[in-house]
């Protein structure tokens, strides 16, 4: 691809993601299979306008997520498209519906202003609440947000377990995952290491809605309990604390407050594992450098370099021990011990 073509491809990137969003929103990926169907049948079953349906199906096919027959107007799903089905084991449908949905689409218009005045968190500017308050007051957004977090969790859990291969859990009995959501990571760790027990510190709405939680799905209710609380106020005692994609939501002062609360409850031998996208050296292209701009728009937080994480650990009473990475280096697992 030439430099001109690459630039054009990036400029029109949002068209592509919005086309896929529309396909997911209309149920196209969940409806289609590898057996081709006529456009008229698709439009009828999904209650779509047939000419418009053909045009969106054709565009999705041009991106490789559907396949249009050579004679036209018959479509089937491809392996790429299957990743956007809700029943796929590694579904990205929730991520697509959240990141290309109306709330997240709108906040990007504030980016130029943020860069000029230094006042980040466009979510507050656009909706009058931070992202977590908004989710608490908007059931439809909350549903999509939690759906996306489940998709993210499945990806991150696999990478964390890969990064922690060979990690010594022998002196650990109890793990507390702070802000663990539906408990995907902690449940998979407990499943892998049978001597471990766990607690998940979460806000009241999450604790009161455990029907789809992973401890329940995996039959780990006896070894994994939910505790209602706020990480800015108090955390329970544990041998090991885990925070996955939590600190990047908050600014440095807020992170230091969270880590200091953990430090206060931790024993002298307690450790902490922080799972985040870690910004690499200046010459390395990395997803974290893009996700950082999303954090700028959506929260008060940021993606950080390893040195920046070492700094906030030190300021809250922790010492950096090591950082472990999966093969992809998409995320890092930062280990700290209590000073």
Automatic annotation (TrEMBL):
Domain O-methyltransferase dimerisation residues, every copy: 8-84
GO molecular function: O-methyltransferase activity; protein dimerization activity
Sequence ranges assigned to domain O-methyltransferase C-terminal in this UniProt record: 108-318
Domain of life: Archaea
One Pfam entry name: Dimerisation
Keywords annotated in UniProt: Methyltransferase, S-adenosyl-L-methionine, Transferase
GO biological process entries: methylation
EC number per UniProt: 2.1.1.-
Matching PANTHER family: O-METHYLTRANSFERASE CICE, PUTATIVE (AFU_ORTHOLOGUE AFUA_4G14580)-RELATED
Name of the molecule in the record: Multifunctional cyclase-dehydratase-3-O-methyl transferase TcmN
This protein's encoding gene: tcmN
